[in-house]
Amino acid sequence: MPRKSKIDCIVNNQPRTVEAYPMERLLDVLREQLNLTGTKEGCGEGECGACSVLLNGQLVNSCLVPAAQIAGCSIKTIEGVAVSEDQLHAIQQAFIECGGAQCGICTPGMVIAAVSLLERNPHPDEAAVREGLAGNLCRCTGYTKIFDSVVRACEI
Amino acid sequence: MRAYIPSYQIICPQSLGEALDLLAQHDGAWKAFAGGTDLMVLLEAGKLSHQNYVDIWNLKELRGTTVGDSRVTLGALTTYTEVRSHPVMRAEFPMLCQAAKETGGIAIQNRGTLGGNIVNASPAADSPPALLVYDAQLELISKSGKRIIPYAKFHRGYKQIDLRADELLMAIHLPRHSAQRIHYYRKVGTRRAQAISKVCFAGLAELDGDTITEVRIALGSVAPIPIRCEKTEAVLRNRPLANDTIKSAASTLTAEIAPIDDIRSTRDYRLRVSLNLLQDFWSRCLER
Q1: pLDDT tens for each residue of B248-270
Q2: Residues A31, A58: one domain?
Q3: Are residues A40 and A105 in the same domain?
Q4: Lower Cβ count inside 10 Å, N or C end of chain A?
Q5: Residue A151 contacts B where some CB pair is shorter than 8 Å
């Protein structure tokens, strides 16, 4: 039977060593070992995007990444998105201003997906916003205020 | 219910040779693990029966896109994101780019690989119909060497594929064409984004005046495997763009596919949509 092994990675710019079984989900490593509970579990099968994080700068569903594949990787979670203790990321600020968050479960994943979108395309049109967030489901907002938030963030 | 996580092993080999050695040991004891977008879903559902995996994600030999004079070669680990953003792919193989764009969201496209989509062998997968009409060839590698087979012969039955336990899918070859062709790809699911197909249709045509000189049609989710509809093609090939041609093709297609009722759709709906998509493809040919 496989044993836990030590895995080195960079999480929110800090070097971290976790101990995990090879098939343990990145989502569980983040939440249960590193206490980074901002990343949420929704569906657990790559449909809803609540567990979105950036892995080596790319948007991924952390429920679909086994711990064996994070060795040497750089991970950014919602806890690492703000510019500093005192300054939110433009996307976070815009979500507050435009009412982009309601119950909050999808919000960390939405914010991460939006941050990833703006890194690839700093001025997305509406179609690009919809496509960039297509993998993130929200059952409260009806999406419009989330799309408004992303457009607003481009102006901040 | 979720699987028991400690019982699963993943080994990360440092080279392709090391990965092939592992696959060659004990017949079928090890299986390849790439982006995990299918396998991790099974794990979560408690349905991932195989337990020992070789992580191939970092094998450089299985990555990259090479554009040659007569063909484009995609490493098996080429992600959907890479497929849809490659300029030559967009220009010459737009249906494959569209399939990549419509598979899951960005997060899935960053991890899901073309090779994984092929080897996972789901009849509902989105890239196979495009690969079939583009006459893709698969390059398979094992310790004992390489072999190249037509993708059209790869699927032998539901989830049955022509891949030995010691083999890896290494690359996908796509022949290039200079002729002006009509590319028609349409996926129909429950919603536009993030849905699994109820029916997926890929059609390719070459016209000379009012005659269809070459046509290829393939569908997903309407048979135990992704199918190329050669009988329907034969009805259309070298025929005029006329009403009785498409009527006859529709009745041939009805007999050629075998949709079923399942969790995602019904036999009747799938048949109706397949015929509608054939008609839509036909309309595109008429408009050209």
Answers
A1: 999 999 999 999 999 899 999 99
A2: yes
A3: no
A4: N
A5: no
DSSP B221: S
**Strand blocks (E) in chain B:** 9-11, 31-33, 52-55, 65-67, 71-75, 137-142, 145-150, 155-157, 160-161, 168-175, 182-188, 199-208, 211-220, 227-228, 239-240
Query: Three-state SS for B194?
Result: coil
Backbone angles phi, psi at A147, to 5 degrees: -60, -40
A109 is in which domain, residue-wise? 90-153
Nearest-CA distance from B237 to chain A in Å? 37
In this structure, what token pair is assigned to residue A145? 């205020």
Domain boundary among A16, A47, A80: A80
The DSSP 8-state label assigned to residue A79 in this structure reads G
Cα B269 → chain centroid: 22
pLDDT for B105: 95
Tell me the percentage of chain A whose pLDDT exceeds 70.
100
pLDDT of residue B92: 97
Residue A98 belongs to a domain: yes
> Cβ contacts of residue B257 below 8 Å, gap of 6+?
B219, B222, B223, B227, B229, B270, B271, B274
Q: Is B57 within 8 Å of chain A by CB?
A: yes
- Which residue in A7, A23, A111 has the most chain B C-beta atoms within 10 A of its own C-beta, making it the best mutation to test that interface? A23
Q: Domains (ranges, CATH) in chain B?
A: 5-55 (3.30.43), 60-175 (3.30.465.10), 182-287 (3.30.390.50)
Residue with tokens 């984004």: B193
Please answer yes or no on whether B107 and A59 come within 8 Å at the CB atom: yes
User: Which stretches of chain B drop beneath a pLDDT of 50?
Assistant: none
* Residue A104 one-letter amino acid: G
